[in-house]
């Protein structure tokens, strides 16, 4: 089940981030994530399975005069990775974003560790920047052109 984030979820989401640190997130990113949840999580969603929070991800607009939306803070419980939850959550957000006809492009800023996941969904690599997030965590900026992408 995918539902909107509630501030009551914050503690469980921080735990989820920690379960993915240091494999997918640098320890220094925790403070940024907490700040995001407290100040920028307007379109943030959680995934529950049998009452357990197993994933989360959001998006933020307002880029390029409203034509670009950025996917943000995707986190999946390690025991649930590879089971299609991330794909369902990403497709769910793409469908939400498509409801705004002004949006033409979706950007995701990720790392070399998971860019292949987004590539399979149809995102194209725009740029790479070494050690952007932290040492060993490179920026892989990818885009999905909504004019070219097929709907889910």
Automatic annotation (TrEMBL):
It holds the Pfam family Acetyltransf_10. GO terms for molecular function: acyltransferase activity, transferring groups other than amino-acyl groups. Gene3D superfamilies: 3.40.630.30. InterPro entries: Acyl_CoA_acyltransferase, GNAT_dom. SUPFAM superfamilies: Acyl-CoA N-acyltransferases (Nat). Residues 1-147 form the N-acetyltransferase domain. This is N-acetylglutamate synthase, GNAT family. It comes from Pontibacter ummariensis.
